[in-house]
User: Fold this.
Amino acid sequence: MSSSRTLLALTASALALPGLAHKVKADAAPTVTTVGYRISAYREHDLDRANLLIGSAERFDIDIHQLSVLTPVGENHSLNVNASYESMSGASPWYTIARGDGSTGVVMSGATITEERRDISLTGRRYLDNGTLGLTLAASHENDYDSISAGMDAQRHYNNDLTTIATGFSVSSDDMDPTDATLFNRVTDASKLSRSVFMSVTQIIDAASLVQTGLSVTHLSGYLTDPYKFRDRRPESRTQWAWSTAYRRFFAGPEAALHADYRYFHDNFGIDSHTLELNWYQNVGDSLQIIPGVRYYSQSAADFFTTVSDFLSSGYNSADYRLSAYGALSTSLKIQWEIEAATLSLSAERYRSDAGMALDNGPESPALVDFRRLTLGIDYSF
Amino acid sequence: MHFFLRFALASCLLVWLSGCTPVQAWERGTLARPEMALEPDTMEQALNNHVYFSKEASSGGNSASGGGCGCN
Assistant:
């Protein structure tokens, strides 16, 4: 792979999403400018028509464009700009009802929702002798949702550069102004605040392997209910803990690298989840890389999740499938081809979710989502 | 929760102590390969985080995460 790809990977300072202050691995300032572009097609499968009561079974189709520019500023600084544009259409689960045969039916939003989302983030990074400092500002805009965030991160090397400690925090302020609020008795104007901190330790184990482990804590306060779910009511405070570990090992024989990632998540909604991801970076010659991957995810249900929407309760309740107990299996394949200063990439993912794949038994949702995703990308350095 | 915290702190300590093999600077060529980065493709990682954040109840890890979207 080229030096530009190496620099891009090593700096890893791109903050493409609002509120994310990504982990960083090394402190090599970029010496060239790298421009990256990705176009992705995200397609959710239709809702199983046996579960549909009213509305459209066609769920979201989203087209996503991402642009990233990473450029050196002087000898010891860099600027990274990330922008993305999403256009989406489709229907979303609204509420659920118990049917006479004992099954649960889903009422979907009528016809189609059309929506656009734009976001931009800027990250300035200073490279020191034994670490880096980063500052990120980000904003996201939808016609009914705005988010602004700021974050800082720092890393420092110890132990003859064998050990790296990174830490950071971010704050995000979100405002929502749901459409058709009066018609559907939705909240007309609401906001929420997110505060997040993380700390990680990266350790070089030997000349071919390293491990990183870290902990993040995020506290959200304000309006955490989904205004587009009927009779949805959630607590106004949520604290999330995530412990993650990443292992990287290079195998000289097959010229390949193994990526193994695990995350344990817990929050005060009562949700516990486990995520295990394995990717194999297989080099083929000097310019081709083939990367198969598999990801398994399992979560328990939130304490207030109900399979059938509760129209009478004045307490917390939600039939949002994302708060149910389920497991998901994702398989992916990526091909990367380097042509001089450019790198072309094509990747595909298939995501399947099912309550039967969950590690925890719990109330099931009839509205679980399956999707597939295709991404075409190019990076160019000059 | 207390067990979880102890487990996470113990794992950090384990990682710290695991650096028992001295690796000199000139021996780190393999570690510097792009495919050995924790996140080789930051744009792909950003999109992955966004998709899973939108469709699952979990988020976070080795980064600080905040709000972002009203994704349904």
Q: What stands out?
A: Residues 1-25 of chain A have pLDDT under 50 and may be disordered. The first strand of chain A starts at residue 34 and ends at 44.
